[in-house]
Amino acid sequence: MSDYNQQMIEKYRGNFLKEVEANVEEGDWVKMCMQCGVCSGSCPLGPHWEHPPQEIFMMIRANKREDILSSSSMWMCTSCYNCIARCPRGLPITHIMHGLATYAKRLGLAPKEQPTAKFAQLFWDNLTKTGRVNELKLGLSLYFMNGFGEGIKTALKMKDVGLGMLKTKRMTPMEMLGGHKCKDVKGLQAMLKKAEELEEARIGKRG
Amino acid sequence: MAKKSYSFYPGCSSQKAASASNYQVSVDAMCQELDIELNEIPDWNCCSASIGYAGGGELPRLALSARNMALSEQAHPDQDIVATCAACWLATRETQERLGEDDELLAETNQALAEAGLKLKNDKKIRHMVEVLIEDIGYEELGKHVKKPLEGLKIAGYVGCQTNRPFGIHGESFENPKYLDKMIETVGAEACNDYEKKVSCCGGALAFSEPEKSQALIKDILESAYDNGADMIVTPCPVCQMNTEVYQDQINAKYGTKFKMPVVYYSTLLSVAYGKSAKECGLDGQVIRARQLEEIAGK
Question: What ipTM was reported for this prediction?
Fold first, then answer.
């Protein structure tokens, strides 16, 4: 378990709602949930959530800290915004789920083999390298994220999809050689670094 | 009508030889006909879509969109920002909204932007291309340019998620937005008015990480289009387009279906109806060929 996680456990001992309010994106909305369940019923991948959003909101109040942060639930969010559009209390549920996922990742509690957690990290690494997504490299890194053998199998399975994209010029092998990028990658990366520092400092200050 | 100019944010998928490059081709053809000038934001970056959150916290993600907005303010001070990609539009609008409500966040964002020599005022309108068509041009004007009505075609308007929620198009409902249907009728085709899966989710980015779960959603979207007698699907979103088009063979193999449904963009329909060539409409970018549109474009 990370030092950061230990720190947070000690800081908020027994009050996970307070911890969420202080550290999770849009977390101060959580207490507004009235447990109607419209979010869970509206979620396209609802049946695949270990704990659907409504349950997560109640679990936060019940201090089920580890159960929530180490679950694969939030990583099932497709960002369809159905829950936001339908929530009678106007909770920004999509953002809270993203925020919980980010926080779980930061604490080192996110499930290690969760495919979306892995893919989302690959996506971020890919885009921050050049400022723009390199779709070919992203696709290949996705295929091979579970090791080489698994990667070959996935690549073969996806062969026809890839060929279709190549034939219609919606993908190019040239992307392997650098590909699209921002001119001021240096400035962009310096900006992101600063943003990370500021966010860490702010989270440390709160609560 | 006088020329209309916008500060344009194309996004990663619309770049040359990227997954929605055919979208961009048809948008260019459509805009040429409608006298819409798109001025690309210089050196724009990825918005991190809605899947960047594993690696990026709230502030770094906001900073990404803020950089694009600041560059736009600098290069095209009097022009609204227009995006064609649903995720680009959504991320940029969300950033504008959140920074507009929280002075502390805006100050921090500007501290980060200063590292790239930029500053954000945050006073621009962030719009989707569909809004430009509906609000600045209008259905009537859109219809006036039709040279080849798409007569005899029945089309399912698949609006999807992120062009519809949480912001959506002004005056439309979240559960049954009508604008795509109206556009379909504007170009002389018939809309599937009872298309049940109009605003259902295709899985979005999870089509990559959770292919089976997402393909189950995509299957229902395609099936409903067939049940409603559609010849093709039309969508305003690059992710919706790709997800509903390119996995049809895999879905057929798994579910024993025989899907072969072309999925095009609203800009494809408009540019074909405006008499542009198949190439100008990006029809060579269809993995599942839209033969009926090719025929009309070839006439």
Answer: 0.96
